[in-house]
Amino acid sequence: MLNLFMGLLLDLVLVTIVKAVVRRRRPAHNRMDMFATFSVDRFSFPSGHATRAAMCGRFLLAHLVLAAPLRFLVVLWAALVGLSRVLLGRHNVTDVMFGFWMGYVQYNLIEMLWLSPQTLQGLLGQLA
């Protein structure tokens, strides 16, 4: 789970950097009607929901033994997250598509930096 947590932290940092660099405004039909929430940013590109859905979906598919119907549901869940962002008017289609791609690539990076249980035990042992 620590690897997934590291991936989610990486995602938050990278999405924030890309949004700050690109500074693409949300779609014109986006209504700022979310008064009971804390808005992190005003920018649209990329969709952070899509990056996290793609990365978590790949994590579930790679590390859990799932029957074919459950694998389909994981992919469907990720797709519906992206679709919901467009239908709610929070993102353009390109924001979501790039977000899916970015989440996919982030997972590849996490796989390269993967910490095995033995490595984690060694690190935790040194901290104690």
UniProtKB/TrEMBL annotation:
Subcellular location: Endoplasmic reticulum membrane; Nucleus inner membrane
EC number, as in UniProt: 3.6.1.68
A GO biological process held by the record: lipid metabolic process
Catalysed reaction, written as an equation: (2E,6E,10E)-geranylgeranyl diphosphate + H2O = (2E,6E,10E)-geranylgeranyl phosphate + phosphate + H(+); presqualene diphosphate + H2O = presqualene phosphate + phosphate + H(+); (2E,6E)-farnesyl phosphate + H2O = (2E,6E)-farnesol + phosphate; (2E)-geranyl phosphate + H2O = (2E)-geraniol + phosphate
Entry protein name: Polyisoprenoid diphosphate/phosphate phosphohydrolase PLPP6
Limits of the Phosphatidic acid phosphatase type 2/haloperoxidase domain: 1-111
SUPFAM superfamilies: Acid phosphatase/Vanadium-dependent haloperoxidase
First-listed, main subcellular location of the protein, grouped into a coarse class: endoplasmic reticulum
Tagged with keyword Repressor: no
Entry's family note: Belongs to the PA-phosphatase related phosphoesterase family.
